[in-house]
Automatic annotation (TrEMBL):
Name used for this protein in its record: Rhomboid family intramembrane serine protease
Organism name: Kineococcus glutinatus
The entry's keywords: Membrane, Transmembrane, Transmembrane helix
Domain of life: Bacteria
Transmembrane spans: 12-32, 70-92, 104-127, 139-160
Length: 230
């Protein structure tokens, strides 16, 4: 991609990361107001943040019935995720893996992103009518989103150390990938919703996008790849 395309991609990924920071907590709060998610509020760490945040959010959680509000924020998150998928695809195309582990990690991560995108897209479409009990919702979650998330976690956690050892830039993305699994688990368990745990993925690739926006890297053919021609 040329410099202009890099800047467009960078802007898209950064905006998606910022949007996810707003949408993911609202998605979790909306979930706690549904019939299936209400029991999650019994957890002390969940109640600690969700109750005051719910009061602060106000009309952002009450503009429609609980299931419809939840569906709205899940659909919003589905619109943000393609930026992550495209960023991963571009980064992989520009990167020459240095080891079999790195090559396998990229493949696992990409497979997870594709499955996750297909799953959340299917669920978002199934929720257009606001029926959280629609059969396609379970298909999207269980058959696509769940394995996609697992593959993303494994692929990211394997890929991060490989990129750190190779001197890949930006380092912040490599570190975030390395810490994806513990951050996801901590965020999901403490907050009570795995959408918040997914924020680490958005932030990792938002850092990639921010790097693309820097004048020193804009327009370079391989702005984020360490030299591998030795």
């Amino acid at each position: 991609m040329d410099g202009r395309a890099d800047r467009r991609l960078g802007t898209w990924v950064v905006v998606a990361g910022a949007g996810a920071c707003l949408v993911a907590p609202l998605l979790g709060l909306a979930w706690f107001r549904t019939r299936d998610g209400a029991e999650a509020l019994a957890g002390p760490t969940v109640a600690w943040w969700a109750e005051p945040a719910g009061r602060w959010a106000g009309r952002l959680l009450t503009f429609a019935p609980p299931e419809r509000v939840y569906a709205t924020y899940l659909q919003a998150l589905a619109l943000l995720f393609p930026a992550v998928l495209v960023a991963v695809l571009v980064a992989r195309r520009r990167r020459t893996p240095r080891s079999r582990t790195e090559r396998a990690a990229w493949a696992v991560l990409l497979a997870g992103c594709v499955l996750g995108q297909a799953g959340i897209g299917l669920v978002a479409l199934a929720l257009v009518g606001g029926d959280a009990g629609a059969p396609l919702v379970d298909v999207g979650f269980i058959a696509l989103m769940l394995p996609g998330t697992l593959l993303q976690l494994v692929g990211s956690t394997l890929l991060g150390p490989c990129l750190l050892r190779a001197g890949w830039r930006p380092r912040s993305t490599a570190w975030a990938l390395t810490l994806t699994l513990p951050c996801f688990l901590a965020g999901s368990v403490l907050s009570g919703h795995n959408g918040i745990g997914q924020l680490v993925v958005f932030l990792a690739w938002a850092a990639y996008g921010r790097h693309l926006l820097r004048p020193a890297t804009a327009g370079q053919g391989r702005p984020l790849v360490a030299d591998v021609t030795r």
